[in-house]
Amino acid sequence: MKYLDEFSDPVLARRLLDQIHAATTKPWAMMEVCGGQTHSIIRHGIDQLLPEGIELIHGPGCPVCVTPLETIDKALAIAAQPGVIFCSFGDMLRVPGSGRDLFTVKSAGADVRVVYSPLDALELARQHPDREVVFFGIGFETTAPANAMTVHQARRLGIRNFSLLVSHVLVPPAIAAIMESPSCRVQAFLAAGHVCSVMGTAQYPALAAKYRVPIVVTGFEPLDILEGIRQTVVQLEAGRHEVTNAYPRVVPAEGNVPARAMLEDVFEVADRTWRGIGTIPASGWRLSARYREFDAEERFAVGEIRTDESPLCRAGEVLQGHIKPHECAAFGKECTPRNPLGATMVSAEGACAAYYAYRRLDLVEVGT
Ligand code: SF4
Q1: Which of 3, 221, 229, 255 is the most exposed place for a label (fewest CB within 10 A)?
Q2: How far is the CA of 52 from the centre of ligand 1 (A)?
Q3: Distance between CA 99 and CA 69 in Å, rounded?
Q4: Ligand 1 contacts CB of residue 319 (under 6 A)
Q5: What is the pTM of this model?
Q6: Residue 50 to residues 211, 362, 363, 364, Cα–Cα distance (Å)
Q7: How many Å lie between the centroid of ligand 1 and the Cα of residue 97?
Q8: Is residue 121 a contact partner of residue 115, using CB atoms and an 8 Å limit?
Q9: Whose CA is nearest to atom 8 of ligand 1?
Q10: Which atom of ligand 1 is nearest to the CA of 345?
C-alpha cells in the first residue's frame, strides 16, 4: 500500500538499524511520546532490534489513557440523563469509570451512539432539536481541530442543543512535567509527528534548550521510528540538544495554520488533570468564553465528580516511564484487555495493551 509499505521496507530498516548500531557507544534512554508510536514499536519488535543500551520509555501520548477517571464518570452521568444523545468515538465506550462504562449505561437504556466525526454528532443535534446532543471530545492537539470546528459550526448555525465534554491535553507541558520529575530518566524525546502536523515545531526549541534534551519529530511507520531514533542517537552521542524533524513529509515547521487559528478561537489554555499523573498546569484546553455555552460540564452541572483509581493499577508510573507494563503485578493477571483495571490496558494505543497484544505476556510467565 503506497505510503505504508514503502515505510516498512526491510532492507531500508536494516540499513537504518546498522547506522544506529554504528552510532551508539553508550546507553541512552529516550521516550516516544505517542501511544501510536509505542504500538508500532512493540508490534514490529523495534525495541528488541536496537543496541542493548538503547531504552525506549513509553510516554503518556495515548488520549484514552490520560483521560481522567472523573471525566469518564462525568460522561456516564451525562449519558444517563433523560433526553440526552451521548456521542463518542468507539474506543471510549469500553473505558471503565469508577463503576461502569458507556456500554453498560447504553445497555441500561441510555442513548449512547458511536460516531466517526464530531460533525456527525452536530448533524444529530440538527435532526433532533428536542434532544440534547453531547460529543465526548478527548485527545491531544491532533483531534482538537475537528472538535473546535464543530463547536464553531454549532454557534454559526445556531444549534444550541449541542455541547462538548472537553478533555483535551497538550504535549509540550507534559514533556516539561516529565523532565521536572525527580525520578526522570528521559534523555531525549521522539515527539509525536501528528501533533506537530497541527501545531508545528515552534514550541519545542525552548524545551530542548531548557532541559538539554534532543527532541526529534517522529512518525509512526517502522522506518519513520528508526529514523527518529537514529537522529536522536546521533545528537546524544554528539552532546547536542536540538529539535530536528524526521517526519518532514507530514510536518511543516509552521504546522497547520488554519487549524491553529481555529483552535485559538474556540479554546483557551487551562490546567488539566492527566490520568495517573495528576494536574499539570496549563496542559490542556477548555472552551473559550465565546463558546462556553457549549460546555457540557456547565450545561449538565457535573463539575464536582471525584473518583479513585484501582489500588492495583500503576498506569501513572507506566505513563511516566517509571516502569514497563509487565512490571505491574496485575499485568496479565487481574488486568487484561477483557478485564482492564486501568486505561492503559483498555486503549489499543495503551502501553499495557500493546505489551499484552504483542508477546510481552511471556515476560511475566518467565519471571523476567
Ligand atoms: S497492567 Fe493494568 S493494572 Fe497494571 S498498570 Fe497496566 S492498566 Fe494498570
Answers
A1: 3
A2: 26
A3: 10
A4: no
A5: 0.90
A6: 25, 20, 18, 22
A7: 15
A8: yes
A9: 313
A10: 7
Probe target for ligand 1 pocket from 42, 310, 314, with the most ligand atoms within 8 Å of CB: 314
318 lines ligand 1 (CB under 6 A): yes
Rounded to the nearest angstrom, the gap between the alpha carbon of residue 250 and the centroid of all alpha carbons in its chain is 18
Per-residue pLDDT tens digits of the chain, which is 368 residues long:
566 677 888 899 999 999 999 999 999 999 999 989 999 999 999 999 999 999 999 888 888 888 888 899 999 999 999 999 999 998 888 888 887 889 999 999 999 999 999 999 999 999 999 999 999 999 999 999 999 999 999 999 999 999 999 999 999 999 999 999 888 999 999 999 999 999 999 999 999 999 999 999 999 999 999 999 999 999 999 999 999 999 999 999 999 999 999 999 999 999 998 887 889 999 999 999 999 999 999 999 886 677 777 889 998 888 777 888 999 999 999 999 888 888 788 787 889 998 998 866 665 554 33
Amino acid at 232: T
Other Cβ atoms less than 10 A from the Cβ of 118: the count is 25
Kindly tell me the sign of the dihedral angle through the C-alpha atoms of 96, 97, 98, 99. negative
Q: What angle do CA 351, 96, 127 make, to 5 degrees?
A: 110
Euclidean distance between CA atoms 28 and 152, whole angstroms: 45
Beta bridge partners of 191: 217
The three-state (H, E, C) secondary structure of 250-284, written as one string: CCCCCCCHHHHHHHHHHEEEEEEEECCCEEEEEEE
Across-strand partners of 48?
A: none
Return phi, psi of residue 7, to 5°: -100, 15
Query: From ligand 1's centre to the CA of 313, what distance in Å?
Result: 5
List, in sequence order, every residue forming a beta bridge with 113; answer none if it has no partner: 87
How remote is the CA of residue 357 from the centroid of ligand 1, in Å?
A: 14
Cell of 315: 498506569
For ligand 1, whether the C-beta of 342 sits within 6 Å is yes
Q: Where are the beta strands (DSSP E) in 82-122?
A: 84-88, 111-114
Q: Is the CB of 352 under 6 A from ligand 1?
A: yes
Name the burial class of residue 238, with classes exposed (0-12), middle (13-18) and buried (19+) by CB atoms within 10 angstroms of its CB.
Answer: exposed
Q: Radius of gyration over alpha carbons of the chain, in Å?
A: 21
